[in-house]
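Assess this:
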Amino acid sequence: MGKKIFYIFVFLLGIAIYGFFNFGNYLDVTDKPIKSDIIICLGGGEDLIRIKRSLELHDKGYDKSNILLVTGGTAFTQKDHLADDRMAYLDMQDTNITVIYNPYTKNTAEEIQYLKAYMDQHEYKTALVISEPPYARRIRMLVDIFDVEQNHTIFIVSSNPSWWESKKYYLNRYARYMALSEFVKIPYNYLVYGVLDKLGLQLKVTEVAEKFKIRDDWHQFIRTNLQVTGK
């Protein structure tokens, strides 16, 4: 009996170690950029890398419609003159791209739903979604949950952050933080949008999470214990 428990422990430990070292490859399911109808720059990120990558792809001719969707932002609750560093950056650029700004999407799920609705409305078939590689698995999951690719094709393209390398993510403290965050975000999003939303319970769960600041507390826990202060 003792040997069986030991073998089971060794087996589970081996799986855990293998999973840890390969977690970066699991998360990073980004695609190579393919010329598409539109580009969408998701909210969040640091150092404007998403908006800069979006413009880079536009300059290289990866968008057919000359349209850039910019979503999300910390000031989504304001109704007028929302401050957004990405929009300020775009104002300073010499570009002819048409920007559609929607700051009212609160999270990635709402951004993907908005993208689907926008593409349906304007009959676009393909889109480049710009974000960081460790978020790609969750974005792909949400694309599947909301059946975006029933009528469209979505390419998740890396914003090319300097701190990310999928095979050696664990060597960078900031990358480890991002990866560990996804360890919670992926099952949370699947539960809320893939299961509870279909049962009509999604709003109640998100209200509880916002009321008790569950996600904020989790981020603070990771930052404190990993001593994450920068990249």
Remarks:
- Strands lie at 38-41, 67-71, 98-102, 126-131, 153-158.
